TrEMBL record:
GO terms for biological process: GDP-mannose biosynthetic process; polysaccharide metabolic process. This is Cupin domain-containing protein. It comes from Cohnella faecalis. Residues 344-444 form the Mannose-6-phosphate isomerase type II C-terminal domain. Pfam families: MannoseP_isomer, NTP_transferase. The lineage of its organism: Bacteria, Bacillati, Bacillota, Bacilli, Bacillales. Signal peptide: none annotated.
Length: 457
C-alpha cells in the first residue's frame, strides 16, 4: 500500500497565523505528550509512524510549502506540483510519479488522505483496511466515512445504499456500496441523512494504481512524470471528487466510528488546544473559553471577553467571537499581501517593514534567524542589494569566493549579482535591509544548495 498525503490550502481560514506559505497544517499549536508544541502535519506523521505507515507515504504539495514540509518532517518523500491546481491534478501527478519513477505495481493499492486530520491513532490502521474493502466489494474506489456525532452543515455526506445483506449479518466495518453524495446540507437535511445511515466524507479514499493510470490514458494525460510536470498547467483545475469519484461506479464505503475532527477554523482548533495562552498574554476575569495565540513580542491582555479567540502575528491581528470566526476567510480571502513571516529549511524570517517608494524602488527590512549548523543556499539577486547587520551569533560567510567570519555588530553590503551564502556556527540573527526593483523570490538565483559544494568556492 502507498499513501498520498495532500498538503495544500491558501492559508486564509486561520488568518493571521496562516498565510500563503504557512497553511493551517504547519501551525505549532497542539501539545505533545511531553509538553512541547507540534503542528497538525507533525502530529499526523508521528501517528503514521506509530502505525508503521510512514515509510509508505508521499506528500503531494506545491513549491510554496515544500520547505515547510521538509523543515517540519525532515527528509520525507515529496512530490512537487509545478503550480497550484486542485486535488485531481495533484493526485494524478503523484500517481504518475509512483508509476513511472518509483515503479510501483499497477495492482498496488493507493490511499489518499488530507495531511491534517485530527484523529485517534486507530484511524490509520483503518485506512489500511481499505485494501480489504476493495477486494471484498469489487468496487473501483473505496471510501472511508466517519459516523456523524451531530447533524453538521459543514461537511459533505456519503449516502450508502440500503443493506443488501441479510438482517444481522452486517457490522459497522462491513463495506457498503455508495448510493450518492450530498454536499453541505441544511441541518434538517443532515438529520434526515443521518437517519438513513449517511456518513461524513472525511476525504479518505483508495484505489488500485492501475485504475487511475487507465483513467489517465483515457484522458490522454502523459504517464511520464517529467512530461506531465511540463504540461501540468494544462490539466483541468478540478477536484478529484468531481473529476473521478462522482463519476465512478461502483464505489464502496467503510464506516469509521472513532474520533475525527476538521481543525479548519479557529473555533474548532481552539477546542483541541490545551493551553489557553500561547505566547505573551494574560486572561483576566470573565474570559472563560477564550484563547490567545500571540507571535508578537508585546503582551496581549484580554478582560471580560468570554468565548473569544485573539490571534496576533506579523500578518495581522484578529479578535473574534468563536462562533463567527469561521467567516474570517470571507473577510480576508481577497487580500493578496506578501507573507510577513515564513519558516524555511534553515530557520525563519519576519518582515519588520516594507515600502514601495515614488520612484518604484522597494525596500524591506527583515529579521532573519538561521539555526545553528544550517545555511543559506549560494545565490545572487539581479534586481536588489542587501545590507546585513549581525545582531547575535556567529557565522561563516562566502561572497564571490571570498570568506569572512561574522560576529555580532558586523555589517555586510551585498551588491546585485554578488553570489553569497552564510553558515550559522551558532544560532545567527541578522537584520537585513533589501532595496531594489524586485524583492520577490523570483529574483533569487541559486547556484548551489549543498554546503560541501559551497565551501569549495
Amino acid at each position: 500500500m502507498k499513501l498520498i498525503l495532500l498538503s495544500g490550502g491558501s492559508g486564509k481560514r486561520l488568518w493571521p497565523l496562516s498565510n500563503e506559505s504557512r497553511s493551517k497544517q504547519f501551525l505549532k499549536v497542539l501539545k505533545r505528550e511531553d509538553g512541547t508544541m507540534e503542528s497538525m502535519v507533525q502530529r499526523v506523521w508521528r501517528q503514521l509512524g506509530r502505525a508503521g505507515l510512514a515509510e509508505h507515504a508521499y506528500v503531494a504539495t506545491g513549491t510554496q510549502q515544500a520547505e515547510m514540509i521538509k523543515g517540519q518532517l525532515g527528509d520525507v518523500p515529496v512530490v512537487l506540483e509545478p503550480s497550484r491546481r486542485d486535488t485531481f491534478p495533484a493526485i494524478a501527478l503523484t500517481a504518475v510519479y509512483l508509476y513511472s519513477i518509483e515503479g510501483v505495481s499497477l495492482n498496488e493499492m493507493v490511499a489518499v488522505l488530507p495531511v491534517d486530520p485530527y484523529v485517534e491513532d486507530r484511524f490509520f490502521p483503518c485506512v489500511a483496511e481499505l485494501e480489504s474493502v476493495l477486494e471484498r466489494s469489487g468496487a473501483s474506489l473505496a471510501l472511508m466515512g466517519v459516523k456523524p456525532v451531530h447533524p453538521s452543515e459543514k461537511y459533505g455526506y456519503i449516502v450508502p445504499r440500503e443493506s443488501e445483506t441479510s438482517a444481522g449479518s452486517e457490522t459497522a466495518s462491513s463495506p457498503r456500496l455508495v448510493e450518492r453524495f450530498t454536499e453541505k446540507p441544511t441541518q434538517a437535511e443532515a438529520e434526515a441523512l443521518i437517519s438513513q445511515g449517511a456518513l461524513w466524507n472525511c476525504g479518505v479514499f483508495a484505489f488500485r494504481l492501475g485504475y487511475l493510470i487507465d483513467l489517465l490514458i483515457e484522458k490522454q494525460i502523459p504517464l511520464h512524470f517529467e512530461e506531465l510536470s511540463k504540461h501540468y498547467d494544462k490539466l483541468p483545475k478540478i477536484s478529484f471528487d468531481y473529476e473521478v469519484v462522482e463519476k465512478a461506479s461502483p464505489i464502496a464505503v467503510m464506516e469509521y466510528d472513532g474520533y475525527w475532527k476538521d481543525l479548519g477554523t479557529w473555533n474548532t482548533l481552539t477546542e483541541e488546544m490545551e493551553p489557553g495562552i500561547i505566547g505573551k498574554g494574560v486572561l483576566g476575569e470573565n474570559s472563560d473559553n477564550t484563547h490567545v495565540i500571540n507571535e508578537l513580542g508585546v503582551p496581549i491582555v484580554v478582560m471580560g471577553l468570554p468565548n473569544v479567540v485573539v490571534t496576533a502575528s506579523p500578518d495581522g491581528i484578529l479578535v473574534a467571537d468563536k462562533q463567527t470566526s469561521p467567516r474570517i476567510k470571507e473577510v480576508v480571502g481577497s487580500w493578496d499581501d506578501r507573507p510577513m513571516f515564513e519558516e524555511r529549511l534553515w530557520g525563519s524570517y519576519r518582515v519588520l517593514d516594507y515600502n514601495v517608494h515614488e520612484d518604484g524602488i522597494q525596500s524591506m527590512v527583515r529579521r532573519i534567524h538561521i539555526e545553528a549548523s544550517k545555511h543559506l543556499s549560494y545565490h545572487f539577486h539581479a534586481s536588489r542589494s542587501e545590507t546585513w547587520t549581525i545582531v547575535s551569533g556567529e557565522g561563516e560567510m562566502v561572497m564571490d569566493g571570498s570568506w569572512r567570519k561574522l560576529y555580532a555588530g558586523d555589517t555586510v553590503y551585498i551588491p546585485p549579482y554578488a553570489k553569497h551564502s552564510v553558515l550559522a556556527v551558532s544560532d545567527l540573527v541578522i537584520v537585513e535591509v533589501q532595496s531594489g526593483s524586485d524583492l520577490s523570490d523570483e529574483d533569487l538565483f541559486e547556484t548551489s544548495v549543498n554546503w560541501k559544494e559551497i565551501s569549495a568556492q
